[in-house]
Design goal:
Structural class: alpha/beta
CATH architecture of the largest domain: 3-Layer(aba) Sandwich
Number of domains: 2
CATH topology of the largest domain: Rossmann fold
Number of helices: 7
CATH class of the largest domain: Alpha Beta
Number of strands: 12
């Protein structure tokens, strides 16, 4: 007989490369039609202990999923909507002049995209791999200009500058201290370098971390890619798969 997901767990999910496949442009991702309902059903089965933890903003994820009842930690945990309440640390300054300068610097580099996150910025070169060295150097220079209140975070064909207070591991740890997450065993799935802090935090809490794709990782379990993970997630939601059966990393 099928059983719903075990309510002893709390589920944390990366977005790009996990819930959706990575696209050439951040705005070109495709959400599978059943995904919002799947996530809502999973959240209900887990008593609300499900959160998306992403480098995107909360508003950006909402725009794709249109699931305003889900908990979301955006900007690598810097901004959060939990139990319907939005929060962001006070005193964060926008960096619009620096973003504008970055746009000017790469205006003649087709395929290099500047993603403005108000209090941070991401530079993407997936469509222009030949620009990687220049892009990384420009972001390193900008990080030095902004000073110790910011840090660099590298991902797949992207380098971000984010406020130093951000971090997926910290966001997961904070949620685990409040209901409905408190007292549960955390599970976190992600695919990128930016997810390693989350894996480490979950491991330290005695939970289960799932790396999607190849490469060295702190995660304890692994699936081949986002497609395989979403297939497994649907089976788990239907009571036809178990966390214990996930392959070791």
């Amino acid at each position: 007989m099928s059983q719903p997901p075990d309510p002893r767990f709390a589920l944390f999910l990366d977005f790009d490369g996990t819930l959706v496949d990575i696209a050439e442009r951040p705005d070109a991702i495709e959400v599978e039609p059943d995904l919002p309902a799947l996530l809502s059903d999973l959240a209900a089965s887990l008593g609300g202990a499900l959160a998306i933890v992403s480098g995107r903003t909360v508003a950006d994820i909402d725009g794709f999923l249109r699931a305003g009842d889900l908990d979301i930690c955006g900007m690598h945990g810097l901004e959060r909507r939990v139990a319907g309440r939005f929060s962001r640390p006070p005193g964060l300054a926008g960096i619009a002049p620096q973003v504008a300068a970055l746009r000017r610097a790469f205006a003649d580099r087709p395929g290099v995209l500047v993603e403005d996150k108000e209090v941070g910025v991401a530079l993407h070169w997936r469509m222009a791999p030949q620009a990687e060295a220049e892009a990384m150097a420009a972001m390193a220079d900008l990080a030095r200009e902004l000073g110790p209140g910011y840090r660099i975070q590298d991902g797949k064909a992207v380098r971000e500058i984010v406020p130093a207070a951000s971090g997926k591991g910290g966001a997961i740890g904070d949620l685990m201290e409040q209901p409905p997450y408190r007292g549960r065993s955390p599970v976190f799935a992600g695919d990128d370098h930016t997810d390693e802090h989350g894996f480490e935090a979950v491991n330290a809490l005695g939970g289960l971390s799932i790396k999607l794709g190849p490469g060295p990782t702190a995660a304890t379990r692994r699936l081949e890619d986002a497609v395989a993970f979403r297939r497994w997630l649907r089976l788990w939601a239907a009571g036809r798969a178990a966390l214990a059966d996930l392959p070791a990393a």
